[in-house]
## 1
Amino acid sequence: MDYHSSGKEILKIQLRIEKCVQGGLGLTHLPDGSVCFVEGVLPGELAEIEIMEKKRDFSKAVAVKILEANKGRRRNPPCKYYGKCGGCNAQYAEFELQIELLKQIVLDLFSRTAKLNLPQDFEIHSGEEWGYRSRAQVFATEKNIPWGFRERATNDVVPIEKCLVLSQNLNEKLKENSNFKKRYLFDNQSEKFLGKHIQADESVFFQSNLELLPKLIDGVKKAASGGELLLDIFCGVGLFSAFLQDMFGQVIAIEQDSRCQKFAEKNLGDNCVFFAMSAEEWCEKNSELLSRACVLIDPPRTGITDKLCNTLCKNKASKLIYVSCNPATLARDTRKLLNSGYELADIQGFAFYPQTFHLEMMGVFKCP
Ligand SMILES: C[S@@+](CC[C@H](N)C(=O)[O-])C[C@H]1O[C@@H](n2cnc3c(N)ncnc32)[C@H](O)[C@@H]1O
């Protein structure tokens, strides 16, 4: 038996990994039948794992040795900060396998949480696996230059000379001097984005994968298809409305971050109005408009609040397009929407964040 320096017994065991779940953790069962989540493994692998934490219902473990590897395992993750930096924790899988794992994770999430079996061939659109990121939060390091990312599992900062997922322009910005403790870097290629002049800066939210964004915008346009009224809820600087405004008689854009307003006013035309207020408050006050509109929501990772969900369930839009950067909260909210009588007409994935287990999704709900 091995012991930690603390004197605690080290629990090591060989187990076969059954599948990957949310966050990319491998799932296996311990000999007593309880579930164990393992970091750094892939489906089908036989691994020697070390139990780090044992709770009543499940344990957490890390892989110590891979005894039989999945053929999609990458022998040498190309980033020199891999394992130290807190980002890009999916680098140990080839990109093709990353996409397959994301698909399996989403199918599993929807079946367990939304009680819905998605088609096995549901589509995940993908683009470049490196150099794709045009927006990132970075932190000051001791020497100030270069900037860094948070270290895995600590609050420290790892100085990064070159990040393989950042665009070339953002890599240049890692070398810029600044007095801030943390900041967003923004590669403003969006100024000439898809033939439009979309305005934004690093102070506000903007999508981070500009290569794949046109696919998502196209998907939203097709799903929306046009009409009398579009409600763009969680609109940011009005990105989606900028591309949808010509298809609708009127657009109402709602966003609680008032810093977005000056950009939205430039990005949106005469048939659009912008409200700097919370989605919950606006929808409650204007609930009669919901049932007349095509409603587009694009909430933060936490998904929609119970309050907004209840308003959307009571006042059903004929079409509700839900753009999400977190499949887990999308699956949770899907369950509530389906229970209230919406039907899921389409669902697609967009691999906006290669080398991580994050995924952008679009669900289209209709009210029969
Ligand atoms: C994922 S971003 C989407 C922005 C925009 N749709 C885009 O693609 O650029 C979510 C946005 O919702 C805003 N937000 C967060 N909570 C909100 C709330 N309760 N009401 C209104 N807006 C909110 C954030 O400020 C952020 O701009």
## 2
Amino acid sequence: MTFCAAPSNGPMEATQGLAMRRGACPSLSTPMMTGDGLLARLRPEKPEFALRDLMAIADAAASCGNGILEITARGNLQIRGLTTRTVPLLSEKIAEAGIAIAQGLAIETPPLSGLDQTEVADAVSVAERLRVAVAAHQPPLVLAPKLSVIIDGGGQLNLGAVTADIRLRAMRTNGQVFWLLALAGTETTATRIAALEEAAVVPAVMDILKNLAAIGRDARARDIVGAVSTRWAAMTDLDLIAPLVAAPNAAGIHDLGGQRPVLGIGLPFGQIDVQRLVALLEALEILGATEIRLAPGQALMVLGIAPDRIGAAQALALGHGLRAFPRDPRNHIAACAGAGACGSARIDTRSVAQLVADTAPALLDGSLTVHVSGCAKGCAKPSASALTITAAPTGYGLVVNGPASAAPTAYIEENNMRTALEHLDKLVSERKQGGESARSCLTRLGADGIRAAVQQG
Ligand code: SF4
């Protein structure tokens, strides 16, 4: 099969179908006001950093923020509880520690890029060439603050499940590497546009970025999918390209090959007290850890620990209350900051998330993610979930197969959540047919069956 695609000669009608949308991205230079002060999101420029660097960021979060460090669903750092006085101080401390924070367009690669022997191609070098091209463009491209590009070389912890405006992922066909260009979504939901040879990747992305910039600073890839699709003439049916194998949860031990294990540690519901983090990092350093990489799924990857010590490091992380095993039920719950941390929140998301982990293990077999959202925005998981618990005027709403903004299938009174979860857990445990997953069981029972279970007295 030959993969080849080229843009047609006609001008892109990029402005057609554009719906102007607003979206801000809190950074050190533009922190966002939340329920507990200002919030800054930090995207380190380099994928890897030393343990001492993360300790320095933790110290800065303690002295300038509320003493909690967060890792987002996309693998960025977040510090809350800042004030207009402490934001510049935080900037200074991070600069003093020699940590460069990326600005502008988010160009993301998988956390183990460049290390993983199962990668199809080197995403880091392609991403670097794209960064150079974007930085060199004159006049500077003014793009939507939340616009993102994923360059995915494949491998164990690929970014297939992470949403992006523009995504490229490597694939090998007849011994040759191509990059599948897709727009607006995840590996499975994005619209496939073309299969490109590597030399064509940066020009193609720049072409799309220039068109987005020409539309205006709120333009997102979803606004130009139709125009881009008709412009590129694919010489093969892109639907025939096999989907990327879904990445496992980051939590647990991964094998990079050549006696190089890496330990994925997930923060429980995305947060950790900085003192606990520093204590953990110091202990990991003693065990031989040399490098940290942030990972989607609110996780950090620990590198450098020898195979005969990696089990001890895993037990240590669990002892600190972190997610260090693939079977940890908390791996399958996505919760946002919630009440006390976000001004929009109307429920204590972390307590509800812990209640789900304690009360409804039958739901958490890995086949679905239970999403707990403090409001309809759904920050922790913007896409649809099999089950989403969100705030309702009195108590909670349970959305089945939808995002947090969808109309709830059932309502649960404030004091009935534990009972409702127990009923749901019992329903799945008892009605699962041999070998069936929680997701397919819930699908079979349907919204009516789920509603009946959670609303029984
Ligand atoms: S989903 Fe709502 S409550 Fe939760 S962090 Fe986002 S804005 Fe705040």
